[in-house]
Amino acid sequence: MSTPIDARAARLRDRLRGGLVAAALTPMTRAGEVDLDLAEAYFRRLVASGADALAVLAHTGRGPFLPPDVRAGVIARARRVGVPVIVGIGAVADAGMAADLGADGVLVFPAPGDRVALHEEVWAAAGLPMIAFDLYTDPCPPATLRRILRLPGVAGLKAALLSDAMACQETIALTREAGRLAVTGEDRMFGPSLLWGAEAALVGIAAASVETTAAVMRAFEADDLRTFEKASARLDRLAAATFTAPMEGYVQRMFWLAAAEGLIPDSHAQDPYGPALPEGERAGVLGAAS
Q: Residue 284 CA to chain centroid, in angstroms?
């Protein structure tokens, strides 16, 4: 049974339905220096490639590692692109900044403690529609998910449970029952998550391979089974090469793809916060994209 939803959250829910939200990288050097001009150009290229909205400063964008002035600059530049902007946040203060800079919503990172209270505090402080987040590193109990989904400021819920198909199906079902937007973050179960009822996508694999990701969604929407099968197989090959152990290395792998696609120059396609990866791995990642 659907539960009451604030008009602001309902508008974002409806605006994102059927859309692909690119979980964008933050272009940076090996020393962690961010070039905001490059970031804006990159954001525009993502949208030109088929992204319907941008999620900035999320895990893929290394938001938790960046200083406040850089985070503010990234949000401002994303806003200039002209599509909905969702900002990854881990604290109430981050939500306030996102609201002040005109973000359309926030993706609330899982955090220790009372998850329901965190969402309530974010809503009270910023009044921005929220996308809740069920993440494989800290999955949310179904009873807690139900409480979060009853909050009026929650527009949707992103499932990113990596390999737990049963939990993903349950999360999607709970989200839809509450009248919220079921968002897939399942890079490794992308096609299946659409079949299970996901109504939008917010994925790191679209930080570079937007067209490959969008092709799966468009074929699904068109009820074109043969095209959906082929597009899903291509995306699955790419996801298997990028979302693999060490999992934190996926950000650098997406940087490699983004550089190969001409979205970001090599000088700013570096992840100083992830694990070191063998140089030979780059060829395998690029080969999976071909």
A: 24
- Residue 240 bridge partners (DSSP): none
CA angle 85/150/115 to nearest 5° reads 70
pLDDT tens by residue, 21-66 = 999 999 999 999 999 999 999 999 999 999 999 999 999 999 999 9
In the 8-state DSSP scheme, what is residue 55? Answer: E
Residue holding tokens 């692909």?
Answer: 20
Query: Who contacts 276 (Cβ-Cβ below 8 Å, separation ≥6)?
Result: none
**44 with 82: CB under 8 angstroms?**
no
First CA to last CA distance, the chain? 44
Nearest to 217 by CA among 21, 78, 1: 21
CATH class of 7-289: alpha beta
Joined together, the tokens standing for residue 47 give 């949208």
In residues, how long is the chain?
290
DSSP 191-217: HHHHHTT--EEEEGGGGT-HHHHHHHH
| 3-class DSSP state of 81 | coil
Per-residue pLDDT tens for 60-100? 999 999 999 999 999 999 999 999 999 999 989 999 999 99
Q: Which residue's entry shows tokens 């983004």?
A: 258
**SS3 call for 230:** helix
Residue spans of the domains in the chain: they are 7-289
pTM of the model: 0.96
Structure token digits, residue 224: 């074109």
